[in-house]
Amino acid sequence: METDFRRVVVVGYGKATGNILKYVDDKKTDYGYSLEFIEHEPHALSVTGQICKERGIPYASIPDKKKLGGYLGGIKEETLILSASNNFLFPASLVERENITIINFHNALLPDYPGRNAPSWVIYQGESQTGITWHYVTAGVDEGSIIIQKTCEIGPDMKAYELTERLMDLACEGFYECFAAVLAKSVQARPQQFSPDRRMYRSTQVPGDGFLDLKKEPEELYRLLRSVDYGKSDIFPPLQTLVDGARAEVLRYRKIAPEKRKDEEKMLYLSLADGNLLKIKYRLKG
Fold it and tell me: Which domains does the chain have, with CATH numbers?
């Protein structure tokens, strides 16, 4: 097997990145490239760090954006950079280098939902389907030509963390399917078509502006609650609301059958169209 790439650099974190890292490591003997891993966002229990230790893969933690850009900018040989679950924005000076090719995994079907926290926004907007995109990186955020896409359904009760896990699995599947073509530079990439009203989602933005407006339909509130639900990961701050004019913070929620309703303090019950109840636990503030 042949490739012009002499070096492959994986940048990212988490389980999916670890699976991709192992796959690329398994293939390096076939293609003859060197491999290294960079963790830009350090984690206390680093799956990828452990993989590097077990397999002898060169590892570096570079949380400083300027230092990371400088390190990658110093690469001289022809190099493929794999951006997987990575929030570092590659500078234009690096992207435009002839010896550097960068591909990135995005957790939505581009050109829709570019930017951050796409699983949250597709749930909040009531989409029934989403997916992943591997694309070439250009100077514009999530604007590069599409290499491969994979789709999945969004269940009516699916939470953000559940959808994220499904998308991570799809990201690995898509990568395994396209990696050989990327190395061979034989990908039939598809340019993105952008609509004039294309919205970029930023990390500072929260679905519903972080407010649970109890005047809205219960189905919309349920979508909002699911869209910010990342389990134990604090991706978003707790939702705020007003209960009888008093400021409150949402603690937890569940969809339950009507017969499971109990009279409890600081608990709301809203009727859903499917006959179930949306149970919301809150605490008053101030």
Answer: 7-184 (3.40.50.170), 207-284 (no CATH)
